[in-house]
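#dry-run=false #mode=assembly
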Amino acid sequence: MTPDFKHSPVAVAQQLLGWTLLVDGVGGVIVETEAYDVDDAASHSFKGPTARNGTMFGPPGRAYVYLSYGLHWCLNFVCREKGHGAAVLLRALEPTHGMDVMSERRRTTQPRLLASGPGRIGQALGINKALDGLALDRPPFELLVPTKAVEIASGARIGITKAAELRWRFGVAGSPFLSRRFD
DNA sequence: CTTTCGATGATCT
DNA sequence: GATCATCGAAAGG
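#status=ok
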């Protein structure tokens, strides 16, 4: 069973909460996401296809990886349909698999600091440009179905200046592994 | 608790 | 040349 990526990024962002994401067996439960769409001024896809965002305009169910601020690799899941330009940014995981590997990569043993933030996920899971465009239902990726229902909180997206009024950030209410609290 | 700031480099104008 | 979907350390209340 895999998530259904052929929906709006807002729907997919909520649907993904509670799924477990692994890269080469390392990862945890998705507890925070953000939606980005093509008519959304904050989205990389807003101005149409470019060299960087090409994967966002490819088929859904693939990884879109980009380098943020010159040093942080961030992971997105492409959604909607081929050519559309929508994706969901993974913002925080609750670490469950391969804690030792993540601790080594992150240079901390505090579970809270392993993967609570998009750049931290990238470092903890070993994300890099080589993963850009790869399908999410095949190795090194693995997605495990949620075991429990989750209560969803929403709020404004973090770190953007355009389309800041949209409340397209979603998270598992009350999770201690969020990158920030919801208001 | 909060705010500020440097690191660091690809991308786009 | 400016911007940027970030992080961590440092400084201030």
